[in-house]
């Protein structure tokens, strides 16, 4: 973002071999270990409306799952019908292996002088290992039996992000991106609880709407849309 303030327009990728002050959504800390992927992309955003720009996070999620499939040899786009995809997307910004978190994505925007707008999308992926603070609820590629490294994954990610962003077409192609995201969505059709900070909404996860908002079908047959919150699935939804 500092480079954007200095005039850099992007696209520009920056990756770190070591990250000392990682952060996640809603002020959470993101810890990394040597060998994991910590990378951010500065993407051109001037002229894109904020509501369209928000859907770029779904581009990031789709690109990352495709890159993971390519780097790990699982080819998620040609998975046989009915077969479980190894990498699933958890709204709004996580990638899972099973029920464990593998990766997080953080999208940040800033309006700059001259009405320029910058967006930076950060990717943190547990490639080589899981931080000690997350050992009970996170997963790594190496620990799950996948053989790759951060450099190879970044090469696939930069290619896939460019391709998916082209299909997104500055927000005009979000309908197609939405369908691709739903095909990889974790917990779709099952019980869900979302903590919004003030209330907890429970019901059935009915997907995302045309703006990327999470849709909950409540027990009283009403529908709720959520723009931000902590998501729990299955038995965790009951306990949340």
TrEMBL record:
Catalytic activity line of the entry: biotin + L-lysyl-[protein] + ATP = N(6)-biotinyl-L-lysyl-[protein] + AMP + diphosphate + H(+)
One Gene Ontology cellular component: cytoplasm
UniProt key word Nucleotide-binding: yes
Domain of life according to the entry: Bacteria
Keyword Nucleotide-binding assigned: yes
EC number: 6.3.4.15
Annotated transmembrane regions: none
Enzyme class at the top of the EC tree: ligase
PROSITE patterns with a match to the protein in the record: BPL_LPL_CATALYTIC
Protein name as annotated: biotin--[biotin carboxyl-carrier protein] ligase
Domain BPL/LPL catalytic: 1-169
Keywords noted in UniProt: ATP-binding, Biotin, Ligase, Nucleotide-binding
Taxonomic source organism: Methylobacterium symbioticum
Pfam families tied to this protein: BPL_C, BPL_LplA_LipB
GO MF entries: ATP binding; biotin--[biotin carboxyl-carrier protein] ligase activity
Lineage of source species: Bacteria, Pseudomonadati, Pseudomonadota, Alphaproteobacteria, Hyphomicrobiales
